[in-house]
Recover the amino acids of this structure.
C-alpha cells in the first residue's frame, strides 16, 4: 500500500495545461469573442473539465450564467477554485454528472470540446451524428454550439493505427467534410470552420505530460514511478508513432437552424 507520505509529492494533474486540448490562446480568444457577441443568457459546457473556456465566455458575456458538467471530481474542484479567484462563483455551477440524456437544455450556447462521446451510449461505438443531434436538442433555435471534434486529416496507415489506442481503426473518425455534413444534417449551419495547428497539438501533447516527466526525472525510485513511467511512455508513443499528423481536431462554431 502507498502511504500518504509517499504519494504527497506527486505532480499536479495536468497542471501545465490551460485548456484540455490543442487550443491556443489566440484561437480561444477569437472563438470567445464570436460567442460573446451573441449575448447568450445561458451557457452549457459539456465535459467541461476545469471549465477554462466557460469561465472566459462568462467574463466576456457579463449577463450570462453558466453550467459545466463532467464526471471528473478533481477537474470540477479546480474549476470551482478558478471561478472563486475570478469572482464568477455566483454565475457558474460545476456539477459532477453524466451528460448522457441530460435535461439541462435548451440554452443559448453550448461548449463541447473533445467530449462529444459524453452524449453517446458508452456501450456503442462513438457516433458524432448522435452527438450532433443531441447538441441540437439542447440548444435554442439561433443559438450557438462550439464543437471540438476529431477527424482524419488523412487516412492513417495500418502502422499508424497499430501505434494508436487499442482497437483504433480508420472508420473511427470522419473526414472534415463529412463531419461538417453531419452537422448540417443535424440542423446546424457551420458559421465558422477551423482546425488545430501542429503548434497547438505539440503544445498540448507536451504540456499534457510535462509535470509528470519532470517528476519522473526527480523521483525515479518512487513507489509509483514504474507505473507512471509506463503510462506516459505509452501515451507519448501513441501520439508520436500513431496519430501525429493523421488525427486532427476541428473547431466548429455552429448555428442552430430555426
Amino acid at each position: 500500500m502507498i502511504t500518504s507520505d509517499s504519494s504527497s509529492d506527486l505532480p499536479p494533474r495536468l497542471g501545465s495545461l490551460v485548456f484540455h486540448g490543442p487550443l491556443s490562446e489566440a484561437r480561444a480568444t477569437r472563438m470567445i469573442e464570436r460567442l460573446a457577441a451573441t449575448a447568450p443568457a445561458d451557457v452549457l459546457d459539456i465535459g467541461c473539465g476545469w471549465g477554462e473556456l466557460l469561465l472566459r465566455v462568462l467574463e466576456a458575456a457579463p449577463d450570462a450564467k453558466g453550467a459545466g458538467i463532467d464526471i471528473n471530481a478533481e477537474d470540477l474542484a479546480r474549476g470551482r477554485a478558478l471561478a472563486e479567484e475570478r469572482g464568477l462563483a455566483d454565475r457558474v455551477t460545476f456539477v459532477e454528472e453524466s451528460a448522457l440524456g441530460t435535461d439541462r437544455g435548451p440554452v443559448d450556447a453550448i461548449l463541447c470540446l473533445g467530449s462529444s462521446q459524453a452524449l453517446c451510449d458508452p456501450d456503442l461505438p462513438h457516433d458524432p451524428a448522435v452527438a450532433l443531434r443531441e447538441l441540437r436538442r439542447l440548444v435554442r433555435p439561433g443559438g450557438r454550439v462550439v464543437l471540438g471534434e476529431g477527424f482524419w486529416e488523412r487516412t492513417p496507415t495500418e502502422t499508424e493505427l497499430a501505434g494508436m489506442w487499442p482497437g483504433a481503426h480508420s472508420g473511427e473518425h470522419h473526414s472534415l467534410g463529412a463531419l461538417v455534413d453531419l452537422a448540417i444534417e443535424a440542423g446546424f449551419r457551420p458559421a465558422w470552420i477551423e482546425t488545430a495547428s501542429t503548434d497547438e497539438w505539440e503544445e498540448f501533447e507536451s504540456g499534457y505530460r510535462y509535470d509528470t516527466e519532470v517528476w519522473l526525472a526527480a523521483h525515479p525510485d518512487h513507489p509509483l514511478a514504474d507505473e507512471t513511467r509506463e503510462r506516459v511512455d505509452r501515451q507519448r508513443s501513441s501520439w508520436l508513432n500513431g496519430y501525429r499528423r493523421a488525427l486532427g481536431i476541428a473547431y466548429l462554431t455552429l448555428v442552430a437552424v430555426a
In short: The mean pLDDT is 95.
